[in-house]
Amino acid sequence: KLIQTRNSVLSTLFFFENKRYIMEVIYIISQIFVIIQYIFIITTYQVKTKKQIIMFNTLSAVSAILSFLCLKAYSGCMMSFVSIFRNFLFLNMKEKDKTKLVIVLAMLLILTIFTYNGILSLMPSIGTLLYTLSVWQDDTKIYKKYGIFIELSWLIYFIYVKSIFGIILEGISFTHIIFLLVLVIITQLSFSTFIE
User: Where are the alpha helices (DSSP H) in 45-122?
Assistant: First the structure.
């Protein structure tokens, strides 16, 4: 009976050790997808056309879905799904179709309610809403101006879901956007001083 109890305890310990190992591997996989995601996100700020922005954002969203699934971060996962859906609706739109915007916003609202798990779980919804409104505009400068708030909401969410590479890369992306914004402001101030 003692040997049977010992084997049972060892079996249980092995199960928990094995489960912890699997969880660590899944976490590492999630971080690899975060790195891929951010390669695409940073690219969206470098391209010139709305079509290119949407294409790279879609690739980023696919990577995000895979990462968030590994992290069991369902708000982020669902908002990434909304992003892909929105991108396909908006991609070939010749004229602004308010019906498509309303469909995306309704989907965003429903999935936000469905995945709500406290105030911090709203951060992906805020980022997705701002991004949606920015790409709805024809002027890509609006996208770049909204970028600070979009990136900040995702940075807060990555802290919330404890994604180390998400925090690091979102922090870099956020800093990059602030740097570009400061550069634009300095350039505008220098130019206006030069004219006077």
Answer: 50-71, 74-91, 98-115
